[in-house]
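Quick one: structure tokens for this chain, please?
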Amino acid sequence: MKATFIFTLTLLINMETIYAQTKAERVRKIEIASLIIDSQTLKPLEGAAIYDGKGQLLATTNLEGYFKTTVAYLGEGDIKFDFKVKKDGYAVLKQEEHWGNLSGPLHAIFYLGLKGNKSDMDSFSEMETDVSDLSFESVSKNYLNVSEDIVLEQKIEVAKKKNEKVFFQIGNSYYLVNEGGWLKLNTKDDKVQIAGGKIVSADQVNAVVKRKNITGMTPLASGEAAFGISTN
């Protein structure tokens, strides 16, 4: 009887240990660092508050607009998490993430631009995941690599206002733009196929199609046209 009791107690302890280990394995931690800036001026924002999906405060940005925190994801399968950024005088920015079924050390850097209440410049989000050093020095240095894209996005958004154009020249470069993104062209004479039919040079696209009617754009690997535009 005593031996049976000891065996049962040992079994229960082992089961609890296995359960605890299994539960621990389901927790995946994601280290996040970020620079939060004004989407128009691109200046850092101090005192922006970051909340998790349950409304709990995770971090607050310092004088340089920087914060670093850890998000814990409990569960199997794909990783899903979200957070909000709040700052007086700015629209709330909500970031929703759906990653794959990843394991191991997970890191991400976010460059987030908040839209001022009186600004015409929309908020934006840029993410880098191929990183391990989340120090301010590393995050700010990496910002130099993404800032050119951010500035370009700003210029494109300004160019899109109050028109339905698709082809734009910005600086010395040429772009095809729809509501979801853009493609950089080699020259203004690049051939573009519209809805699988008519082929025109890029600088003639605005006379053929409106931006609101575009459902997709893609480079083409073969044929006369270098790019294709799909429409509804």
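The two ends are 78 Å apart (CA to CA).
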